[in-house]
């Protein structure tokens, strides 16, 4: 009975956050059309709404640990579900993602993503897109802010190991920017697929930055070691709290 009630709450929660996305998208549209700031404010407002409604509707409390960067850096994050996108973006002033090109055509999400400076990438052509983006940054055409990339390329369930793709290393090396790794346990509560949401404390943690200037190989090894170790720690923390 308790699980059925939580499933019903989860369904209502999911429906309402996407409904609110559409409402906010329309409300902020005039400002967003003429100003990137308007689009950023709209997206940040929606992120706060999701965090607030998740707490009282499905019992997911959220926490951002560490120091979110405010300068122009590369953010390389563990990706477990849509919730880590919401928490990371909501914690930085001008986040922008490397995203799948198909999302450009998604209602509301696609239009706002392009306005805030997200970089569309064709599947199978990630390396070419990264090279173009590095060139755009060097030429001053890219929107300033914090570029968020998921080194594993897709959502990964908690505890599952998957390779880190070399694109993040190429971007780190060629951009000349520091990198802030991010760990998370959000997949324990908000899964990569499905409706059901589990109550608990979902965390994203900004780890100490990796300074620019290391070799691609050294950077990739350090990034994977630090993000995986911290994400495993957060996952175990979530499971311990759940057992109590």
Description:
There is one protein chain. The chain has 244 residues and is of the alpha/beta class. It has one domain. It is built from eight helices and seven strands. The chain has helices spanning 2-27, 29-34, 36-58, 82-91, 109-116, 126-138, 167-175, 216-243; strands at 60-65, 74-77, 95-100, 119-121, 146-149, 179-184, 200-206. The chain is globular. The model has no long low-confidence stretch (mean pLDDT 89).
Task: Give a quick set of tags describing it.
8 helices; alpha/beta; single chain; 244 residues; 7 strands
The low-confidence parts are none
- Percent strand: 5-15%
Instruction: Tally the structural domains.
Output: 1
End-to-end CA span = 21 Å
Task: State mean pLDDT (0 to 100 scale).
Answer: 89
* Secondary structure tally: strands: 7
Major β-sheet profile: 7 strands, mixed
What is the assembly state of the chains in this entry? single chain
The coarse overall form would be globular
**Count of individual helical segments:** 8
> Rg to the nearest angstrom?
18 Å
Write a compact overview of the structure shown.
By secondary structure, the protein is of the alpha/beta class.
